[in-house]
Every structure is written in structure tokens, then in C-alpha cells.
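Run log, item B.
One chain of 250 residues. Sequence copied directly from the ordering sheet:
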Amino acid sequence: MRLYPAIDLKDGKCVRLVQGDYNAVTVFEDTPSEMAKRWEKEGGSYIHLVDLDGAKEGRSINEAAIKSIIEAVDIPVELGGGIRTLSQIEEKLALGVDRIILGSAAVRDKALVKEAINRFGSDKIVVGVDAKEGRVAIEGWLEVTDISAVDFCLALKKLGVKTIIYTDIAKDGMMQGPNVEETKRLVEATGLRIVASGGVATLADLQAVEEAGVEGAIIGKALYLGAIDLKEAVGLFEKQQPEGGKYNAQ
């Protein structure tokens, strides 16, 4: 299982929200690239980066911070938040982002998802499915739709999507454990590579999502509060490949 240390960007700073609430912000680092270097030093093999301002505004906002992170580390970076057109995808990949996370755009425009995969490949395009009580949320979690998360993932699979980043909004930032049951249901119902996000607070939580059959797990607030030591977690849940010092999902 691959672990993804998370960096959320707001106003050019590294922050964490509680349940996606833009008014419940804690700033952890004024220079996000320094945080990225820390996670790389502690064994992180892939950084999960979210432009919170972009998610809310529908366009990339924190490009300077994103560029500084990419330049500061040698590990790959995935990016989500405000990326809603093919040209934006192309720009971010050219900037050095390893793969793009489509969120609200995937809900509103499935043709975009299909075209993006056709043009850039399924390894470069993943979809972030954010849900509350099993229903898909969009616009930076500000709007909850009537779309079932499972049904949405199955529709995405038909478009060629192979990887889903699943976030349970009710769990995100709460340090109360992930929604293992819903995550496992997605894994079993879709057969897709599911990356679990939201609520991971302990090593036991990581064990639980690993047993649910996920491809990976995103760790956010637990790292920033010191509840999980990234180096220890990497040692327990990731297997280092002999070539290139990279890690691979189990």
C-alpha cells in the first residue's frame, strides 16, 4: 500500500481544513515546499497536493507554490483543485505534475474525463470522488449531489478511469478514523484502484484500510499533529523496490 502525505494549499500556505470547511483553517507552514521536502526526507514516495483555492474558484490559484514544491523534491506529485479543462491539464503536466486529479469537472463533464484519458493516459488522469453519506460532493465540498459514489465510480470505469481517490468529507480532518466500510464497498463494487482519504489518525487506521484492499492511503492532519510518524508508517506499509529507491503498492 502506498502512502501519500498530503499538502493542502490556501493563500500560498500549507493548511488543513476540518470537513472541508474553508472557515476552519489551520496554517501549518508558510512555505509549502519546505513541508514537501520534509515528507520526502521522512520516506514519502508520492505527494498528494490540493489547491483548495482552485477547488473553490474553479481555476488554479496557487501555481507559484505548486511550482516551488515540484522543484523542491525528487518524488512525484499529484495535483487536484480547479483543474477543469484539457488545456489546464496539459499546463500542469508540463509544469512537472506527475498526475492530475479531476474532481468537480469529472461530475459535470464525463466527456472531459474520456478525452483526457485518451490524450494523456489513465496513469496521468485520476478522479477524486468526494462524498458525504455515500453521495458525491463537488465545488470544494460546498455542494452535495444526488449521485451515488458507487454508481459514479462505475460510470468512470467505463470511461477508462483506473484510479479513484475517495474522500469521506464527514471524516476528513476529524482524526476519528476513515470510513473503512464505505471504502471497502467501493473496492469490491468497482474493482478500481481506490486510494483512501479522510480520517486516517493512527497506524491501526492504516492497517484497516490496507485490509480493505485499497491501493493507497492519503495522510494529512495525523502527520501534521504528530499522531502518525511518516517514516514509521512507510516502514510498515510500503515496500521499497531495489531500483531507483521508489516504492510500489502492495
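Observations after the first pass:
- The chain is about 40% helix and 30% strand.
- The domain at 2-242 is CATH 3.20.20.70 (TIM Barrel).
Flagged for discussion on Thursday.
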